[in-house]
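ok so i was messing around last nite and threw this chain in just to see what happens. nothing serious, just curious
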Amino acid sequence: MAVVAVWKCDRDGAMFDNKKDAEEHDKMLELAANITTLIERSVEGIDEQVSEEIGLLLAKRRDALAKACKGKPEVLLEDEDHGEDPSAETVTPFAANQ
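result:
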């Protein structure tokens, strides 16, 4: 029997086959949570589910958002499948490792 090391993110239960990807995913989720809190504090009456979705979207697209803030707003409208979320490809379902 082979032993397979996996890293599990406490925040959402996502599993990764290497520590670096797991830590990057965790940082993205922490950023999303902080953005969500900021939105809920700043926008009166916003639905919690909506604020969480916005927070997660902005955290996943943080690189494009940073470029947009530096003078390239058009990058926000580019297709998000061009590698904006590196953790999406590294999430490993636990069953796949067995």
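not much to say yet. Helices lie at 19-42, 48-60, 62-69.
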